[in-house]
């Protein structure tokens, strides 16, 4: 897997020749000016919940990639279906086999409502497994004991993508505990620095993980990693 950080909680994940976009919020993020939204390739769009900073660019991406399929909870898929965007609905605990691998929708503790006030259903995260690699995309969440279930369901999580900005989600201290719960010492941090309330002291965060024998990755926007 090749995982590119697109800013905030947005990701591009390339699995062989399949392209996944997660929680696209690019045009509204001034820190992501280096990303050309119109150049993004998408076969699937994964949405963790309905807040604006996770769905803003879904329609534009589908306009540029008309065969792209949305993967999210039932309420989010239904809301976008009214806009002519096709999707596959999941609910908590459910999984689905796609041509790139398996997606399981897992619990997150947060809120979820569309900008127009429509019900966004319950927020969630994703576990994506392809071949011998598995990643956990936590979405916007607090630390929760439910995370301890993941190592019972999956042989190994190779990368945990966790929010670390605090205020609206976990901070980096709780994210380090979350990495214990999911038994993954390699963490990609997200959902920080975009807005003043989630400003991050990067050195403190990286050192906190390092002191616990863990690795916190904070790639620049547009930078990618391989697992």
Question: Could you characterize what this model shows?
Answer:
By secondary structure, the chain is α/β, with parallel strands linked by helices. It has six helices and 14 strands. It has helices at 52-55, 58-64, 74-81, 150-153, 172-181, 202-211, and strands spanning 2-5, 11-15, 18-22, 44-46, 69-73, 87-90, 95-98, 101-107, 124-130, 133-137, 159-163, 186-190, 215-217, 224-226. The strands form two sheets. A seven-stranded mixed sheet has the order 6-5-4-3-2-1-14, with helices on one face. The longest helix is centred in the last third of the chain and has 10 residues, at 172-181. It is globular, with a radius of gyration of 16 Å.
Essential attributes:
227 residues, alpha/beta, seven-stranded mixed sheet, 6 helices, 29% strand
A few lines on this structure:
With 227 residues, the chain is an alpha/beta fold. Helices cover 19% and strands 29% of the residues.
Indicate the radius of gyration in whole angstroms. 16 Å
Distance between the first and last residues' Cα = 6 Å
- How many alpha or pi helices? 6
* Largest sheet entry: 7 strands, mixed
How would you write the strand order of the largest sheet?
Answer: 6-5-4-3-2-1-14
- H/E element sequence: EEEEHHEHEEEEEHEHEHEE
The amount of beta strand, in percent, is 25-35%
Residue ranges: pLDDT <50 for 5 or more in a row?
none
How would you classify the helix and strand content by structural class?
Answer: alpha/beta
Q: How would you describe the shape? A: globular
Average pLDDT score: 98
Give the strand tally.
14
Portion in helices: 10-25%
């Amino acid at each position: 897997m090749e995982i590119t950080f697109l800013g905030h909680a947005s990701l591009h994940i390339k699995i062989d020749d399949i392209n996944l976009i997660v929680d696209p919020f690019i045009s509204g993020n001034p820190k992501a000016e280096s990303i050309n939204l119109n150049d993004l390739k998408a076969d699937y769009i994964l949405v963790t919940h309905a807040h604006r900073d996770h769905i803003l660019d879904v329609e534009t991406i589908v306009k540029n990639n008309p065969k792209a399929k949305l993967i999210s909870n039932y309420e989010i898929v239904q809301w976008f279906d009214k806009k002519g965007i096709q999707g596959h609905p999941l609910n908590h605990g459910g999984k689905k086999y796609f041509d790139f691998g398996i997606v399981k929708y897992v619990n997150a503790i947060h809120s979820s409502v569309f900008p127009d006030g429509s019900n966004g259903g319950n927020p969630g995260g994703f576990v994506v497994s392809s071949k011998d690699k598995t990643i956990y995309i936590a979405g916007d969440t607090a630390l929760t004991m439910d995370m301890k279930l993941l190592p019972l369901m999956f042989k190994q999580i190779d990368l945990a993508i966790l929010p670390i900005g605090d205020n609206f989600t976990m901070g980096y201290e709780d994210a380090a505990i979350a990495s214990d719960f999911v038994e993954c010492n390699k963490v990609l941090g997200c959902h920080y620095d975009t807005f003043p309330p989630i400003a991050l002291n990067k050195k403190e965060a990286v050192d906190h993980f390092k002191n616990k024998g863990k690795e916190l990755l904070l790639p620049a926007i547009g930078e990618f990693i391989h697992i």
